[in-house]
Structure formats: C-alpha cells, structure tokens
C-alpha cells in the first residue's frame, strides 16, 4: 500500500543544527544578493540599468504574450491564456477595415488580428484583399478573418460590425496638398459612410483617410442625413499630424523631440483649415501657447 511521507522526515534532524544551517543559508543568499546588486550598480551605471530594466520588462511581456498564444499546450500558458486570450470571457467583436490592402491598412489589419478583443476581422478593399486576408488569417490569434473585394461585397464586409476603421483613399504624393487629397478622398469616404449608415449604423467609426479634419465632418453629415449620427461614435485619427508636429517643432527649435507634449486642436469652422496649439513641455524652451504650425 502506498503511504505518504509528507508528515515525517525520513532522517530526524537535530533542531539546533537545523536552525544554524538554515540561518547560514539565508545569510549566504542575502550576501550574494548584495554583492550582485553592488556589481550591477557599478558595472552598468544608472542609465544602462534603466534601459536594461525596460528591456527585461518588454521581453517578459513578450514572453507572457507568446505563452498566451492559443497553440501553446503547457499548463502555465493555458492559465495565462485564460486571462489574455480567452474567448469564454471576451465578448464577440467584429472589426471592419476599409482600405485594408493599403500601406496603412495592412499593418493595421495585422495589429487588429493580434488584438485579443477582436473575434471577427473583416478586411475590405477595392483590390488585393484576398491575398492580404489570407496572410493575416495565418496569424495564430483569436479573430476569424474574412477578405472582401469590390463594391458588391461591401455590405457583407460591414454587416454586424462593431467598429469600422477607414484608411481607404489615396496618400499624399510629392507636390500634392491636402486640398488635392480632399478632392479624391472625400468621394471615397462619402460612399463608404453611406454604406456604414445602412449596414452597421451603430458601429464606432474611426476615420484615418486624410484630410481627417474634413473627412470626419463629411462622415458626420452623411450620418446626420441617414439619421444615424452620434458624436460619441465618430472618431478621427490625428496621430500623423501630432507626431509630425512634434518632429518639426523639435527640429526647428533644436530641442530633443522625446518628452514633448503637444495639444492638437482641429478647427472645423472653416473648410480645409487645420490649426494647432503646441505646448512643448520639458524641452527647455519657453514657448507661447497659441503658436501655430502649418501642415
Ligand atoms: N490620420 C493619420 O494619422 C494618417 C492618415 N493617412 C491617410 O490614410 C490614407 C491611406 O494611406 P495609405 O494606406 O498610405 O494609402 P495606400 O494607397 O497605400 O492605401 C489606400 C488603400 O485604399 C484603397 N481604396 C481606395 N479607394 C477605396 C474604396 N473606395 N474603398 C475601399 N478601399 C479603397 C486602395 O485600394 C488602397 O489599398 C491616406 O488618405 C493617407 O493620407 C496616412 C497615415 C496616417
Ligand atoms: O498621405 C499620407 O501618407 C499622409 C500624408 O502625408 C498626409 O496626408 O499629409
């Protein structure tokens, strides 16, 4: 009969000797830690240490994410995957990307496919979507990917979407102004938003197509006309202008670009007008609030 040996130690220990041995072990460990941290401080210096800590945190995060991938089979990963990737606890969410085969659309599709909050990813473009959708679908994450190409498939791409992201259109080429961009992208955005109002009127709409300060009001007008407008569900992505403003300002003022904070105000009153209020903090220069930088 099998017996448990958890309760009695096979070799009886003398209490005093045992206590001394435990004490010396603890002291040894403590001293080793002190010596290590001393060596660490003096060999690396403060800056390097900070960098290393950040790198360690990053790689730990990456390792956690890797181990959370659904293909993983070992027990600890399964435990982690429950909190990071589980479809049991996450609600179903469909995200549609319109213009998914473009320069912005492709990496965006990749990021959405990696997002554990997305359960269904709908990739729409007027061309090249099947290949992009096939590539993205091979990523081993939760979202199911479907590709749609051409106007006749737009309705299917949009139906049931909770979020629609729009990077469809043309990018600016050398010599083009944002007005030129508007002349092309306004029509594209108009037809896409008309379809959104019809097939997924309650979706959150995230506009990337430039000029965002004009394409967002176009979307708003389309939705108002269709009776589906909700200001809390329409967004414009201004990232490009924010990072550009930071880089340009830092270059002009000859200050480090890192650590700069900019407040970007879009002026919707006049068509094609984009105005900035730039507030660079921590960059060692005195700048008046209200200073403007054109795009
Ligand atoms: N708001 C921001 O921070 C940023 C905005 N942009 C803007 O995003 C837009 C896209 O830029 P890129 O991806 O570099 O251009 P791109 O030319 O690489 O991609 C645009 C995609 O839109 C597709 N497209 C064109 N008409 C369409 C329609 N009617 N329906 C669906 N898809 C359509 C094209 O086939 C193409 O695949 C541009 O307007 C650009 O100015 C770009 C970077 C940042
Ligand atoms: O077209 C792009 O890729 C973005 C751009 O430079 C602009 O809109 O100013």
From TrEMBL:
SUPFAM superfamilies: NAD(P)-binding Rossmann-fold domains. Keywords: Membrane, NAD, Oxidoreductase, Transmembrane, Transmembrane helix, Tricarboxylic acid cycle. The chain crosses the membrane at residues 16-42, 255-277. Its EC number is 1.1.1.37. Residues 94-236 form the Lactate/malate dehydrogenase N-terminal domain. It catalyses: (S)-malate + NAD(+) = oxaloacetate + NADH + H(+). The keyword Transmembrane helix applies. The keyword Membrane applies. This is Malate dehydrogenase.
């Amino acid at each position: 009969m099998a017996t448990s040996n958890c309760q009695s130690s096979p070799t009886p220990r003398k209490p005093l000797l045992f206590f001394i041995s435990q004490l010396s072990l603890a002291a040894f460990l403590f001293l080793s830690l002190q010596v290590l941290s001393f060596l660490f401080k003096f060999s690396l210096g403060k800056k390097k240490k900070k960098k290393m800590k950040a790198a360690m945190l990053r790689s730990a995060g990456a390792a956690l994410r890797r181990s959370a991938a659904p293909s993983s089979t070992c027990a600890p990963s399964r435990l982690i995957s429950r909190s990071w990737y589980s479809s049991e606890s996450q609600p179903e969410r469909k995200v549609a990307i319109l213009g998914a085969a473009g320069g912005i659309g492709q990496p965006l599709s990749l990021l959405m496919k990696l997002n554990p909050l997305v359960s269904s990813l709908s990739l729409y473009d007027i061309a090249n979507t099947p290949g992009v959708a096939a590539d993205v679908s091979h990523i081993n994450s939760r979202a199911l990917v479907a590709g749609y190409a051409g106007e006749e498939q737009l309705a299917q791409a949009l139906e049931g979407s909770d979020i629609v992201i729009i990077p469809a259109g043309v990018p600016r080429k050398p010599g083009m102004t944002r007005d030129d961009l508007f002349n092309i992208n306004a029509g594209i955005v108009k037809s896409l938003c008309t379809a959104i109002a019809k097939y997924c009127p309650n979706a959150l709409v995230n506009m990337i197509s430039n000029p965002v300060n004009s394409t967002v009001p176009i979307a708003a007008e389309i939705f108002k006309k269709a009776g589906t407008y909700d200001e809390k569900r329409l967004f414009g992505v201004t990232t490009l202008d924010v990072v550009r403003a930071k880089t340009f300002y830092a270059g002009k003022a000859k200050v480090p670009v890192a650590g700069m904070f900019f407040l970007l105000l879009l002026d919707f009153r006049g068509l094609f007008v984009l105005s900035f209020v730039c507030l660079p903090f921590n960059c060692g220069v005195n700048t008046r609030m209200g200073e403007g930088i054109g795009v």
